[in-house]
Amino acid sequence: MSNSDVAGRSTRSRDVVFGVLTNETRRHLLQIVRDRSPTGISKRALARELAAVLTDAEPATVTDAELERTLVECHHSHLPYLLDSGLVVETDSDTVAAGDHWAFDDPVVRTLLDNQMDSNVVETLASILTDPQRRTVLSVLANYQKPVSTDTLARDVTGREMRDTEAIDFQERLDYVLAALVHDHLPRLQQAGLVRTDDQRDQISYEGGSQLRDTLVTTTASCEPVVS
């Protein structure tokens, strides 16, 4: 679990990781598998531990019905998703372990997995980070040494997204980004406590802390142009 290669952190990979973290069941599932790695854990034992977590009980007290229901959910929904993402791998037909994935070395992902925050806070933050443009907004803001205007932020985000993409009209893209900032991204980020806005002076500043800043630097270092 030591793959920290930034080049491997594609937009798709980042979307999937933060998407997993918005789902409480998959988050718990990933926690259990990670904590049992590199040895791994049988799928039945995994289902038992997951059922115990979800029902706030001891594994030994999980009923047969709860175990079978959780096994079915893991088999048909959660495990296929995690296996496809590379976060979890099968070591044999009945055992799974954590994959060699950058997410396990990421400080923010570790924080979100380690139950250091309220579940609702975790899901809110993960949901925010699932959106690639919102990650770019935070990454750009985190690099500023002082508050900036909405227009400056929009121009820098547009420039980041249009890097090496000359076919797109800059002004058209800028108008799109500016509208997204005002009506979507900034209200969400402010509500989550990740940015501070002063509407009277049109000033925006980053409030996400150094740990999230480090994650944003690495997860957007090879930012792919957004051309929607």
From TrEMBL:
Residues 18-94, 127-204 form the DUF7344 domain. It comes from the Archaea. InterPro entries: DUF7344 (IPR055768), WH-like_DNA-bd_sf (IPR036388). This is DUF7344 domain-containing protein.
